[in-house]
Batch of 3 targets.
Target 1
Amino acid sequence: MVTTTQLPASAAPTALLEALVELSHSYGSDPELVLAGGGNTSVKFDDHMLVKGSGTALADIRAEDFVDLDRAALQALLERDLGTSRDEREAAFKQAVLAARLYPERAQRPSVEAVLHHLMPGRFVVHLHATWVNQFSCCREGRSLVLDNLGDDVIWIDLVDPGFALAQALQEELRAFTGRTGKDCPRAVIMQNHGLVVSGATRQETTAHIEWLSSELRAVHDQAAKEHADKERAAAGALSHPGALDETEVRALVNVIGPALRGLLGRTGEPLKVVTFDDSAPVLELVAGEGGCAIAMGGPLSPDQIVYCRSFPLWVAARPGEPAVDLKARLAAAVSEHTGTFQVPPTVVLVQGLGLFASGSTWADADTARLVYIDAIKVMAGARRMGGVQYLPDDFRSFIEHWEVESYRQAVKAAAAGTGRVAGKVALVTGAAQGFGLEIAQDLVAQGAHVVLSDVNAAGAREAAAALSAERGAGRAIGLPIDVTAAESVAQAVHQVVRAYGGLDLLISNAGVLRAASVKTQAEGDFDLSTAVNYKGYFLCVQKVAPVLEIQHEVRPDYRSDIIQINSKSGLEGSNKNFAYAGSKFGGIGLTESFALELVSDGVKVNSICPGNFFDGPLWSDPNMGLFAQYLRTGKVPGATTVSDVKHFYESKVPMGRGCTTADVMKAIYYLVDQVYETGQALPVTGGQVMLH
């Protein structure tokens, strides 16, 4: 049930508001209809109109997110002369629409298409950027195909600036439509290189118009595609992806290009970009097909593409087997040339035969660019099948690039990105499905990082990551399987990190096991397991992430990354009847010091944190395999008869009188990340139980 507690008593009737919210959610959740929070909806009642607020998304819009406007003020605006200059006109239009707000104290900004919504005769209005419509609106033959087949049921509006100019064009077309047909409202309005508008007296009628248009246009498309089949085969010829690369080539290229783009696309002194990779079928049909570069570089198709992907992608040729050093140099030169030509770095990079890389300050931004560009690929493919692509002209493109409305949307998005001590960083945490590792991951996400939770318990890692993303935002966490004792498992996990985020800034090597026993009785297998996970696993993780970190530093010399091993106080002093664990942790500190010496030239700081006893975690408190239970069974604590006796014994050994907590360790992690002059250290967090000399 929609609540209207935040709306004034004179606002829309509850039934209308509920229908509007439901209509918005229905269409906003369909990526074939709405992407990147685009599209808008409205409802009219009395002399009011509630329209979607700018910066909100249809998929999750709330009742209070709609802006209440005075329709009389909107109508009066249409009669005004706002001047001939685009800049003057848009500034005056924005102020006039803001002045039409009935409740300006809410500081809401209505959709730029508010006047268009006012003009549509139906009570409910829906404006969408549907893929199946834009295959016509962005087609050179689109106007004739639509009007010849749908006749007076549809109005077509030629390309015109959004906002005031579009509203004026619609007003003229509606008047002509009424004079021609005697009707006050068409079943749909299609706007060139933009999308569709549909209105109806009820939610059901509005939905019926959209379903009718979809059915009709899909039939027209199929017929037109058949008629242009010969042209399509000659121009595309890419359905079998003859230029696609094999799996080994893909992995090698992605593992270089992703990290390189993270650094090349950002600004000095700022966090590296998030870069996400896509090699789905629609992408490969473009990048692996003949003529793909010419198609992609023809120009943008719609305002959305300009806003979220920038006007032109960067096209890069793939050269399988090319030395990484040459590929990095070629990428740097290509990005520099593109930036010089278009005054901004690319958001989308297309690599011939490989796929699409999309960048952003967050994964959500990068994924939005990816989705919007894939939609553009589908639109281009559909338009080509019907006679050719209608790209936006240069003057219109330039207008959208500098449009204040879009600058406002970007400011809203930036404000929502969030802050924190590791904001903008990508972290990989091993052993993160539960316990200490999970709590580390949770805190990193809360402090603004994107976090990969990896664990041999793959299901647990995925479940924990899904919960974090549900709480903190899509893409803020992913879960991956990893067996730190197996080189290929680690390499595959790192590759998946690169595919999702482009690289990483922080490795938390946390995975560990402990098998306590006397040296006289411990099974060889338990000793081998401790060594493999705690010592070899640390080595393998560093070995596989080091090349990624090196590339990022090479292209951004001001950039520094971090490797932090979660060691133990047992890495600083021996542990009675726990030699396998202590030995592996002693060895880990030796690895840390050695890695630090080698990787400092790659901009990598390597440190260990040596926590005291984490008594509340499963390592200690698990009733069957926890250390308290193990130590009780092995008689490590003289006189202890219960688990509580063992726990009290260990707490009494800590000068601070308690065990270590995640919060204690997080302070150490953030300290080490913040430092620019600290590497090769083993930092105790033991409550004074172990003191360095």
Target 2
Amino acid sequence: MNTTPFLCIFDTTLRDGEQSPGASMNCAEKLAIAHMLEKLRVDVIEAGFAASSADDCASIKAVAEQITDSRVCSLARALPADIDRAAQVLAPAIERGNARIHTFIATSPVHMERKLQMSPETVLERAVAAVRRARSLCDDVEFSCEDASRSERDFLCRIIEAAIEAGATTINLPDTVGYAEPAEFGALVGDLLAAVPNAQRAVFSVHCHNDLGLAVANSLAALGAGARQVECTINGIGERAGNASLEEVVMAVATRSDRFAFQSRIEQRHLVPISRLVSETTGFYVQPNKAIVGRNAFAHEAGIHQDGVIKHRSTYEIMEAEAVGWFSNQLVLGKHSGRAALRRRLEDLGLCCEEQQFNDVFARFKELAAHQHEVFDEDLPALIGVLSQEGELGSALYSLSSLSYHSQPDGGARAEVVVQIDGEERRAEGSGTGPVDAAFSALAMVTDSAASLLHYSLNAAPHGSAAARGRAAVRLAHNGHTANGTGTDADVVTASARAWLDAQCRLGRAARRHPQLDAI
């Protein structure tokens, strides 16, 4: 009989990850990521916060309808209306038996006094009532003590014991503001497991933020102290400095099995593909030196390192690149490649689409292959992204029909754009310090946008091909809302214009969303 403890991976990319400013995703994008998370075999997918918006309700319901191998979860404040809404959208998964309601309330003195304006006794009563209501609607209930790392131990013991007695099957201890350090956070988990009388009736979980860069370290310390679930996100995205990075937690446990002896369902070879999918969807590009999924994670330039790796990989590599999805497919995609090869690679990357949509993607693929000879993995999400921006797969309001630009003798530039807005062509000219600035000016005029540009970046393809597509990222802000957009094209100014339009579309959607209040 295998007695190795099981490690539950709880992914909150679609909920906490989406709370990254500018990272909002539409229903189709969330569903694509959810399918890839299921392929990765995460145990729980937190698909959203049902009470936050109609968009989140629709997305959670769609995920609950289609995902069967992972549990589908919705966040809910310790309020009857929140819990009922979560149960309503999770209904398909509840019926199948793969749903979870995740309810929470703050437990630290500063949160109870300043934010909730409740006494500890009222908070405890509210928590118990919420867990009981959730358990009456769903067999799997998680309860979180928001800001647990700054909460008083005695009160945590009382509220956790009461929540388990009320029916909570998982107890989550969030380091909500990334304040803890590994030794004290591990001690917190260990002390609570020892002190709470009914602790063995629930799985203890941790949800660590990265404000001090310690989210993964704190999560691992908690595992060493007895926690059996880690809440994390792809690429570590999330509120402020982000969350514990799923790929780093998973590979730390797998690589250091001498220190972390756990069973896990995770299919590691999908880590790089899903990292790319999330990056392309949110516009949050992965830094080159990011552990596991950064493009330099397995790169060696120093002569000493190269010599060592050539002689024996283990000299400078503690894991195999192929194990996490690097260079995992040797199919070369080019102008002679057929539909089967393209479809297979799209599926490997989690980029699935309907037959008619695939026809459009295949036509784009052929155009690109004729232009740059070889099409790389990085290009494929971009091809689908182009279609989404043009309204063929997504819900974009704008379509870039044409863009022309030229530099002026005084050093400035002018640009002219033609944009289809709800099927009507509109034209505008703009000027700026360079072609990209001029294009943005023209786009703001043609869309009547007052948004401010917060961020702009341009990424070249990593393969050194001069003909490869450029990938631009833009972040816009207006009236307290922010949104990221991405764009791709062989012409970098056109790629930048597409990114600006994509951000403007997302900004419009973000303005229609309700804020996700009090999320852990």
Target 3
Amino acid sequence: MAQIVNDFTVNIATANGTGSQSANLILLNSMFEMGVSVSGKNLFPSNISGLPTWFIIRASDAGYQAPGDNTHIQIVMNKDTWMADVEKAESGTIIIYNQDVKLPIERDDCTVLGMPMTKMARSINPKLARLMANMYYVGGLAEILGIDSEAIHSAVTQQFKGKEKAIELNMQAIGEGRTFARENWDCNIAHVVEAREKNPNTYLIDGNEATALGCIFGGVNMLSWYPITPSSSLAESIIGWIPKIRTGDDGGATCAVIQAEDELAAAGMVIGAGWAGGRGMTCTSGPGISLMSEFIGLAYFAEVPGVIWDVNRVGPSTGLPTRTQQADLTLLYEASHGDTQHIVLIPGTVDECFEYGWKAFDYAERFQTLVFGFSDLDLGMNQWVTAGFEYPELPLDRGKVLRTQKELDAIENFGRYRDVDGDGIPYRTLPGSGLEPILYRGTGHDEDGVYSEDPAVYHATVSRLKRKIDGARDLLPAPIIRNEEERQIGIVYYGSVENSIKEIDDILEATGIKVSTCRVRALPYHSEVEKFVEEHEQIVVLEVNRDGQLYGILRKEMPTDLLNKMYCVAFSDGMPPRAQVYVDMILETLGVTQEVKA
């Protein structure tokens, strides 16, 4: 049988709270240690321990990181989803199962491999058998795929840092699993793992922790937060890192952390920190943004800097709290009532999560407004490869802050909301400086900050705010464009679709369709996005939502002569974007026949 090297997908079906996450991460990290391009997707329940969970591992020498359209190896451990997991397996799938569950697997068209995992675990430690049973599928899978023993040991050591007894017991279980597979699984497996040269400076990190580190290095002074999946680990990462890298000369923390009573209070604290001259932030998801809406409008109209990170989960309402989506984009861009428009930073990699973590504060202070970071559960809670982060540019951009009387006197006809420089951005003073004025207003106000209901004054104020945010357009991160010559079709996308776009591109090229791509990294969108649209005869906008939210924004803001060339391809089912799903929709949208596809 011809070997298929580093090109397979494993789906591991277990129950939440059984210790399977440790086993799954050991598999993921052991292949990463061997230099294999590998990615993992954790699909976990939103409520209580014991409910079904799946972990998808994809190895791909081509660097594909989407979940994969086919499962090659199915591990079955959970009796509650047993029948469904077995039935979903395609013909030819390798099914590895725990024989102690004592449920049937009637699939003559699949390679079925059983192991008494719970019984074997009890022989090592009866009390921990439920948790350790998972290590036996690690051992069995490592044996048939050829995962290096040293890489397994390194991954186990990393997973159970400093817990020598746990390392010893789990390595014993994995070793017994390998031996059982070698002695009892008499089969030819096509898929194998083959080591590749590994960059020693690379490591795995999830997007939320990368963002947290960026925020810390960007000088966050105050974190207010209220727990909500999938953003909680962003706050928890900041809390975990502060004692290590953000302490003062006296050993005390240099960043205040407040767990607020609700999302409204968290947003209010961000405004308080920004008004006082600090760098304040909170993190949440769509439901939290909805609750923060009134404070968001206050920050916009009163021109108070602050940062809010939205790690998108599936809505509306409670929706699917532990699944991924890109459906908060328009919510952020025009959050709150009335005419509003906000800066939105949209990372597509963990490196950009770190970068935008610190840049968000610079933009917030430069433009005196709330800045949103827009991530999602897939990017935020799964692990991705990085070669390390680039330290923030110094000095940090604190914007138009007047700190001395001399600076204030140098501004002719100073007023808190007067546009002195013609860029829509006024100068500000800070409380405690002894300089006036420091009053900020959420009601109608003139250029001096004095209350006003004059129609002309109001119109001038909101027009200036519009000009201010629009002026940020080409100062925000430019799009990443992969523009090939003589390609008539362009794909515009954003965020974590980055992790599927290479595979989408390759599949389309195999059908004879060559495309250029443009990844939007911020709103308001950069002028290069419009230029990209102009240069192509057809534009397809890819999104992980139902309604095509970026597509709608582009159609609203671009010149009318460009609108007829744009097509929407939007899809959302809670899963990370799968390449073939989007390819099929693109081909259908462009009117490409199945015969051409073949």
